[in-house]
Design goal:
There is one protein chain. The chain has an eight-stranded mixed sheet, with helices on both faces. The chain has seven helices and eight strands, in the order E-E-E-H-E-H-H-E-H-E-H-E-H-E-H. The relative contact order is 0.15. About 25% of the residues lie in helices and about 20% in strands. The longest helix has 15 residues. By secondary structure, the protein is of the alpha/beta class.
Length: about 230
């Protein structure tokens, strides 16, 4: 596998980065990469997350893998910006990568983990398929449940509408969810997408929201999903 190279991408919110892993060798009988998988990171970590790094192995199957680093992370800040800012920066990065001199090959599979998965779902109109890891469907209930004045704390809103964006559009979507993810179980994810089961594939992995204990198995699941795309 060739070492990744880094492209700096200007956005209205500062510079982002794309860490590109190109195919080392194209599969026999092909003359061009199979496409590009573009993956964003979570709100509590970066593109060095073990599962994101493991997915760069897909370059061995003829895919370009691009790990997208948000400007807030490039700038060294510890707290992610609000979703509209995440979407704004990601949109500009995608538009830049879609034209020369970069012109990353189609089809595009957008994805990422946690907050990056949410961004991918919201921007799914740019993709032919989605690969979402640890989608935070429902934040855990607040603890303690009561404020100091005795009022019940508000329960955070579900992100089900974000997940429904690609499903309603019929975009093939793979969700890889930890078996013990407090932000939504694999069954809860499948329940949201039940009316759109032709578009949604849910796979469970050993781990929770922050940790994937079987990254090799995760890569196998993603590789199988990509291989089955039209």
């Amino acid at each position: 596998m060739q070492p990744p190279w880094v492209i700096t991408l200007a956005t209205p919110n500062g510079d982002g980065r794309a860490h590109l892993s190109p195919p080392a060798d194209l599969p026999e009988g092909t003359r061009a990469p199979r496409g590009t998988e573009l993956l964003g990171h979570g709100a509590g970590g970066g593109v060095d997350a073990p599962d994101l790094q493991a997915l760069t192995a897909l370059s061995g199957d003829g895919w370009v893998v691009a790990l997208l680093e948000q400007p807030w992370r490039v700038a060294g800040r510890r707290i992610a910006v609000a979703p509209p800012k995440l979407d704004e920066a990601a949109t500009v990065m995608l538009m830049t990568l879609a034209v020369p001199p970069h012109l990353l090959p189609r089809p595009w599979v957008l994805g990422g983990r946690s907050a990056g998965a949410r961004v991918a779902a919201r921007l799914s109109a740019h993709a032919q398929a989605l690969c979402l890891i640890a989608f935070p469907l429902q934040p855990p209930a607040p603890h303690p449940p009561m404020t100091k004045t005795g009022r019940a704390r508000a329960t955070p809103a579900s992100r089900r509408e974000e997940l429904l964006i690609p499903l309603r559009a019929g975009i093939p979507t793979l969700v890889l969810q930890g078996a013990s993810d407090r932000f939504g179980s694999p069954d809860q994810i499948a329940g949201v997408g039940a009316p759109f089961e032709n578009a949604l594939t849910v796979r469970s992995y050993l781990g929770d929201h922050n940790r994937t204990e079987d990254v090799d198995g995760l890569v196998v699941e993603v590789a199988g999903f990509l291989a089955a795309l039209p």
